[in-house]
Amino acid sequence: MPTEHALDGLGRLFQANPASVPFLLASAVSAWAAWLVWRRREEPTAPPLLATLLAEVFWAGCEGIEALLVDPAAQVVLYSLKIASVALVAPSILIFVLEYTGTGAGTSPRFVAGVYFVPAVVIGLLATNRHHGMMFERFGETEVRGFVLMDPVYGDAFWGHMVYAYALLALSAGLLAHASTRLSGLLRVQVLMVMIGVLTPFLTNVADMMGLLPEPYRQYDLTAAVFGMTGMLGLFALNRFHLVDVAPVRFARIVQEMLDAIIVLDAGGRVVGVNRAALRLIGKDEGRVIGRGVEALPSWLGLSGRGAPEEDGAELAFEVTSGDAPGATFDVRISRMTRGRSWSQLVVIRDISEKARADAERTARIAAEQANQAKDAFLAKLSHELRTPLTPVLATVSTELDHGPVPEDLRASLELIRRNVLLEARLVDDLLDLSRITMGKLRLSLSPVDVHSVLRRAVDLCKDGIRDAGMFVVEELDASRPHVLGDATRLQQVFWNLISNACRASPPGSRLTLRTSDREGELVAIEFRDEGTGIASDHLETIFDSFAQGDPSQGRGSPGLGLGLSIGRSIVDAHGGRLVAESPGPGRGATFRVELRSVPEPAAPALPLTPTGDPSNRPGPGGDGRGACSVLLVEDNRDSLRALSRSLGRLGYSVRTADSFRSALRAAGEGGYDVLVSDLELGDGSGLDLLQQLGTDRSAPAIALTGYGTEEDRARCLSAGFDLHMVKPVVAAQLDEAIRSVLPTRGE
Questions:
Q1: What's the CATH code of the domain at 599?
Q2: Cα–chain center distance at 529
Q3: Cβ atoms within 10 Å of 656's Cβ, excluding its own
Q4: Cα 484 to the center of its chain, rounded Å
Q5: Residue 484's closest CA among 597, 602, 604, 605?
Q6: How far is the C-alpha of 386 from the C-alpha of 430, rounded, in Å?
Q7: Looking at 186, 219, 250, which one is the last position of a domain?
Q8: Overall number of domains in the chain
Q9: Where do the record's region annotations for Disordered lie (predicted)?
Q10: Nearest alpha carbon to residue 478 among 518, 450, 513
Q11: 3-state helix, strand, coil in the chain (%, to 5)
């Protein structure tokens, strides 16, 4: 039968030798361990350990299969493959131990090649043994319990190879023993298990080579079977003690590669260990530090004469500044480590320069913010205190000039007073604007604006100055796209300032030409050309600096603080435009040009300018007033209260007054008023508190009249319920227009 012939053939090839089982099991266990190591192949100790396990897989596997074979030629091949695997085990174990203990030589490719040179020669001799017999002089056969096994006679090269392998294994065991004296805990358990895994097969093989094993085991290579036990030990170590994942070399590399400087001092204060970061910090090589006292370390570290903590776990921490690198700050921590009867100090030094700088910058930033807040509060208070006394002066003078018979000789004096009061108010506004600009708090209320309308309004506001300067204005408003996206009030402020500057710099009888034109790139240009003193070429940019007084040598010195042009350029810049100055030279006039990006004309009319307390934005006289309208005027400054009350009375209003928060509450509680005009600071309260007390069910509109003029003040007033925010000083005409503007709003 074919099946019987096949079985007969197999019987002539194989023998059912039960002694092969432990070897095949050892090979399988080693293969399993190799698979687990392969999954951790990124670790530095994994490659040599994997090579060791694979060599053991072939060693034990070849021994097991050889025990099953009957054919002598096949047994010779398997025996040669086994010896080739044996040749690879010892070098692989040594490289693994070198990596594992962190000795470092195993990481050199040249060293690895040198260690594997002898195994490479052995494999070559095995492949060519039939030509020279240096590995095996001959192969004989022996029978053990009825099974035929190989009985080789070894050559000189074989014994040389064994001496080399034993030397490598002895070196590996010595390195592990030395490492165990320096480790504790999990790492020491790891080292002991690795030593067992190395020494057990090693000692078994020595006993085998010396013929010390009893019969019938003497004819088998029990070293391969022992790999079954060491393989199981390896599996246990891989899973329970993380043999590859947690190795001394990893800890050593972590310490060496740490950014923190590590210094270990013994009980006598001598340096016994440093990492690379410490050497970089100290600026010396290891040989000039190890074994030396703390005097070998930089004195600025502050370690000399400083005692260690008395107990384990205690820590001494302090900060030092480097004497070698100005600005470098370090956090130094000293802890005590006790081992048996001896103890040492662990010094960890961390560079906290960036943190220290960040802390310093944060502290400086907080201080700057607090200083800015204090400056804001100071400027707001200063503005209020400067504006308040101007209010009764301006109200009284304006009322007399606009509504009373004034002798001609007195009119000139009153107009002089009014001009200088407005100039003083302008200076206060400029200071506040400069503060907003420098702190990035300049806010714009953008909407489509007709620059022609804004320009004409600015001319109207400057008509007294133009008349006093003896100038005449020529308008050439030729721009076909005069609309821009801008803040009408702020643009009017810029135009007003440029016209005012021209009035001061131009002689009587000269001409001021106001021209608009279209420019490429959808720009509209607004030019202010005077025939005044001109500007030297080296002053065309410096006149825009804060507190610059123009060119005094050419008569362009400003009576103010020199902020108008600087503020004007900042406002134009905030609109995405530019403000430039041009002049042919001294005595030949100057041209200031504002360029802004034009936008399509809006479907609805552009928003009109709203009345504010800005002297550059004052409306004209407000008419006859409303005789039937009653105003509740709340002001804690008696002079301002009397002046404003008299001015409103001259306009035909019925005025009731209150000079404090409490009196205002009483007056408001009595009713009978159509509009409330209130200061914010009332001594015993505030205007904001007053509106809160009156509640949302009040029917009369409210106007805030205050010396506080920032955007935050305006927003706070409007959110509190005021219908309008006005900044002191104001003239009666402004207040009249404001009152008439809010009354229809409430009536609708």
A1: 3.30.565.10
A2: 49
A3: 16
A4: 38
A5: 597
A6: 13
A7: 250
A8: 4
A9: 603-628
A10: 518
A11: 55, 15, 30
Identify whether 48 is part of a domain: yes
E-strand ranges in 303-368 read 315-321, 329-339, 342-351
Residue 451 contacts residue 482 (beta carbons within 8 Å): yes
528 or 741: which carries more pLDDT confidence? 528
The residue from 594, 612, 630 where one domain ends is 612
For residues 452 and 583, membership in a common domain is answered with yes
Look at residue 499 and tell me if it is in a domain.
Answer: yes
Phi/psi of residue 89, nearest 5 degrees: -65, -55
Q: Quick check: 49 pLDDT over 60? A: yes
Q: Please tell me the total number of residues recorded for the chain in this structure.
A: 748
Residue type, 370: Q
CA 153 to mean position of chain CA atoms: 75
Q: What is the dihedral of CA 184, 187, 192, 195, to 10 degrees?
A: -130
The order of strands in the sheet holding 654-658 is: 654-658, 630-634, 675-678, 702-706, 724-727
Do 675 and 701 form a contact (C-beta atoms < 8 A)? yes
Give the predicted TM-score (pTM) of the model: 0.47
734 C-beta neighbours (distance < 10 Å), count: 26
Is the model's pLDDT at 533 over the cut of 60? yes
Residues with Cβ within 8 Å of residue 17, at least 6 apart in sequence: 67, 68, 147
pLDDT digits (tens, 9 = 90+) for 434-471: 666 766 667 777 889 999 999 998 898 888 888 888 99
Instruction: Note the pLDDT tens digit of each residue in 500-511.
Output: 889 888 899 899
Identify the three-state secondary structure at position 485: strand
Q: Which single residue is written with the structure tokens 């100090």?
A: 345
Neighbouring residues of 447: CB distance < 8 A, sequence distance ≥ 6: 485, 486, 487, 488, 606, 607
Helix (H, G, I), strand (E, B) or coil at 331: strand
Q: Which amino acid makes up residue 400?
A: E
Q: Are 712 and 381 in contact (CB under 8 A)?
A: no
Domain limits at 241?
A: 9-250
Q: With 80 as the cut, is the pLDDT of residue 245 above it?
A: no
CA 713/CA 704 separation, integer angstroms: 10
Strand ranges for 570-609 from DSSP E: 578-582, 590-597
Does some domain include residue 364? Answer: no
Helices and strands in the chain: count of H runs, count of E runs: 23, 19
Is there a cis peptide before residue 216, judged by omega within 30 degrees of 0? yes
The dihedrals phi and psi of 544, each to the nearest 5 degrees, come to: -90, 0
Please give the structure tokens belonging to residue 580. Answer: 């430039």
Structure tokens at 209: 């080579």
**Is the domain of 667 the same as that of 641?**
yes
Q: At residue 246, what is the residue type?
A: V
